[in-house]
């Protein structure tokens, strides 16, 4: 099974290590990158083809990621240039514990 590629946002190293360790108990984890404060972690995740983006929930952060995190539920309808089709992306917050159950919640393994 291929590893799950994780992009880390700007956060304390100890917290990042904890998340990677918990995911690594059930899944091969590859760090796609780590954003520095002020960098766009969402853009970095896209560029690195990451499967999972891990960020701090910072209400004062700016940019697109902050706008997404500010909404408890958000759906995005991405239309083709010609308008003949679209794709719906649903984003919804779900509380997860930072414990051994994290891997199951994130990647559906048990």
Topology:
Layout: E1 4-8, H1 13-24, E2 29-34, H2 41-47, E3 52-54, H3 63-70, E4 73-79, E5 86-92, H4 102-107
Parallel strand pairs: 1-2, 1-3
Antiparallel strand pairs: 4-5
Principal-axes geometry comes out as: globular
User: What is the helix content?
Assistant: 25-40%
Mean pLDDT: 86
Q: Give the end-to-end Cα distance, rounded to a whole number of Å.
A: 14 Å
- Any low-confidence stretches, pLDDT <50, length ≥5? none
Number of helices in the DSSP assignment: 4
Task: Give an overview in words.
The chain has 110 residues and is α/β, with parallel strands linked by helices. Helix content is 30%, strand content 25%. The strands form 2 sheets. A 3-stranded parallel beta sheet has the order 2-1-3, with helices on both faces. A two-stranded antiparallel ribbon has the order 4-5. The mean pLDDT is 86.
Summarize the structure.
The model has no long low-confidence stretch (mean pLDDT 86). Helices cover 30% and strands 25% of the residues. The protein has helices at residues 13-24, 41-47, 63-70, 102-107, and strands spanning 4-8, 29-34, 52-54, 73-79, 86-92.
Please give a handful of descriptors for the protein shown.
alpha/beta; two-stranded antiparallel sheet; 110 residues; 5 strands; single chain
């Amino acid at each position: 099974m291929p590893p799950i590629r994780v992009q880390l946002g700007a956060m304390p190293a100890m917290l990042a290590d904890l998340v990677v360790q918990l995911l690594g108990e059930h899944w091969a984890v590859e760090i796609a990158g780590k954003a520095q404060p002020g960098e766009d972690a969402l853009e970095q995740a896209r560029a690195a083809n990451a499967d999972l983006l891990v960020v701090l929930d910072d209400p004062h952060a700016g940019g697109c990621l902050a706008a997404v995190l500010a909404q408890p539920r958000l759906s995005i309808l991405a239309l083709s240039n010609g308008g003949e089709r679209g794709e719906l992306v649903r984003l919804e917050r779900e509380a997860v514990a930072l414990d051994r159950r994290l891997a199951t919640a994130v990647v559906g393994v048990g």
